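Input structure tokens:
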């Protein structure tokens, strides 16, 4: 599988190319890393390629906050400069400055 360098980074705001939601990236998989059941649930005519980065997002739309898993081909940079209203953002990120989130430092053993 030929994987690419991720276009979006941890803490970056993004929006979906088709569906009306936006979010902040909190993790990146270099290629598809979810279940086949999840993959097969996507209608074949809009199913993205597996050999591209996939992003874990703290996502929101006008009504809900949730976690989303989205292919790079379906994301655009969100230029609003506004933070997301997701309640888990404060658990992962320490601040929001200049339109991006700064991740909390991780403790490694």
């Amino acid at each position: 599988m030929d994987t690419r360098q991720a276009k979006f980074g941890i803490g970056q705001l993004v929006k979906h190319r088709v569906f009306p939601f936006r979010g902040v990236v909190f993790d990146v998989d270099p290629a598809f890393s979810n279940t086949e059941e999840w993959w097969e649930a996507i209608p074949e005519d809009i199913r993205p390629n597996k050999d591209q980065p996939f992003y874990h997002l703290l996502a929101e739309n006008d009504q809900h906050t949730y976690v989303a898993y989205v292919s790079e081909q379906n994301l655009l940079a969100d230029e609003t400069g506004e933070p997301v209203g997701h309640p888990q953002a404060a658990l992962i990120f320490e601040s929001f400055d200049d339109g991006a989130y700064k991740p909390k430092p991780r403790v490694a053993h």
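The first strand starts at residue 13 and ends at 16. Residues 36-41 form the longest helix (6 residues).
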